[in-house]
Amino acid sequence: MPHRSANPDFLARSLAAVWHPCTQMKHHEQLPLVPIKRGEGAWLYDMDGRRYLDGISSWWVNLFGHANPRIGNALKQQLDTLEHVMLAGFTHEPVVELSERLAALTGHRLGHAFYASDGASATEIALKMSAHYWRNHGQPEKNRFVSIQGSYHGETVGALAVTDVALFRDAYAPLVRAGSCVPSPDARNALPFETAVDVARRAAAALDAHLAEHAGQTAALIVEPLVQCASGMAMYDPEYLRLAREICKRHQVHLIADEIAVGCGRSGTFFACEQAGIWPDFLLLSKGISGGYLPLSIVLTTDDVFKAFYDDDTARGFLHSHSYTGNPLACRAALATLDIFVQDDVIAANRRKSARLKDAFSAAVGAHPQVRHLRQQGMILAFDVDGAPAGFARRFFGAALERELLLRPIGNTVYTMPPYIVSDDEIAHLAGQTAAALEASLG
Ligand SMILES: *Cc1c(COP(=O)(O)O)cnc(C)c1O
Q: How far is the CA of 115 from the centre of ligand 1 (A)?
């Protein structure tokens, strides 16, 4: 377990006053909080002068490092110009520029951007828009949703309808109108002699069969393209997305691509859907879109969907709103983030970095007898630990912190999703200390 802090009073104040997310608070009787003072590049520094390489980009949001001067300076200018204005009836430069740039990145196939502040809200918006689209088209019975086994699309009551993680859903099951789940194309499901493409085709056939029966009541299928992150970095072949696109079209069901985690270059292309050569009816962004600076989420959609709401009748419009919809500071952070993608040719640079990551981890843990399914998709790398002891994830987390590394396994799956500015030396630290923490937490 990690060190004893020099600031016990501060930690006690935090535990008394702050209810931490995704946490059984009682576990903090044993596991100390880590009080972070500042960040710089890929590193976080605590109040006791220790440092940690941020191997998970602070829950997958940070792209270009902490205290990035380019994003910081853009925000400082925006702060002195306009911090916020409501987006109903008003507009402003950052939101228009961001919407246009995102539309251009989709080749103008998804030319309408709707804004919110967090990922779960983007999911809710897409679900509501999809069902409302069918209602406006005289098919109100198309109001159910399909997701993939092991899906994660957020934890608000609406988003839980399409989130298939028992630990997050079971306690709230009576509140949730659960959707249907279809088999996952997770490549680890391959039978002997099956390839990842075979698994994708098998899963797509199951989707086709489900929709053949239920399309009349189904508004949309929601997927996490290429990687189902929160349920343990399940990776799958783009063939599934190609087939799902075709199947949804044939059955007149929307396809929602939740790129909240895999978008913004994380998968190796700016949008993960690009690798399948498809465009969904709705594409969700959050997490990395603001560079990890401010809460922001965006639902991109098509002319077809937009037109279904465009009418003299108020009630046919999409009346959803949040107080901070389209916040200028968050949009400015996103614009500065997109600037870096262009100026530094980030997608190409990441190709070299992800090859480095692969080499470093193959050398460090690839031959470990308990390491299974070492896998990678762009700037996400993961492996499963066979025969891990009970409480492995928390043991590993503590052992990694002791080695200047922030990693937080999901069950027995260890993964890294580093900021894109990670250097070769930092990749060596990441892989080397992962191997050491693994050894320490298995022993
Ligand atoms: C994180 C995540 C969400 C939820 O986003 P929040 O901002 O945490 O509400 C939804 N979908 C996916 C794929 C995610 O990774």
A: 15
Which residues contact residue 151 at a Cβ distance below 8 angstroms, ignoring those fewer than 6 apart?
162, 163, 164, 165, 181, 222, 223, 224, 228, 231
- Residue 258's closest CA among 294, 296, 286? 286
Number of CB atoms found within 10 A of residue 353's CB = 19
How is the chain split into domains, by residue range?
34-67+346-442, 72-343
For the stretch 338-392, pLDDT in tens is 999 999 999 999 999 999 999 999 999 999 999 999 999 999 999 999 999 999 9
Task: Report the separation in Å between the CA atom of 18 and the middle of ligand 1, taken as the mean of its atom positions.
Answer: 22
Q: Is 201 left (phi over 0), alpha (psi -120 to 50) or beta?
A: alpha
* Ligand 1 centroid, distance to 291 Cα (angstroms): 15
Nearest CA to 282 out of 145, 80, 88 is that of: 145
CATH class as words, domain 72-343: alpha beta
Task: Report the residue count for the chain.
Answer: 443
Q: Between β-strands 254-258 and 218-223, what pairing exists: parallel, antiparallel or unpaired?
A: parallel
- The pLDDT, as a whole number, for residue 1 is 46
Could you tell me if the CB of 292 is within 6 A of ligand 1?
A: no
225 lines ligand 1 (CB under 6 A): no
Q: Under CATH, which number does the domain 34-67+346-442 receive?
A: 3.90.1150.10
Q: What is the 3-state secondary structure (H, E, C) of 140-166?
A: CCCCEEEEECCCCCCCCCCHHHHCCCH
pLDDT tier for residue 4 given thresholds of 50, 70 and 90: low
| Integer Rg of the chain from CA | 22
Q: Which atom of ligand 1 is nearest to the CA of 262?
A: 13
pLDDT in the model for residue 443: 79
pLDDT bin (cut points 50, 70, 90) of residue 172 is very high
> From the alpha carbon of 229, which atom of ligand 1 is closest?
15
Distance from Cα 122 to the centre of ligand 1, integer Å: 9
Summarised one tens digit per residue, pLDDT across range 241-286 is 999 999 999 999 999 999 999 999 999 999 999 999 999 999 999 9
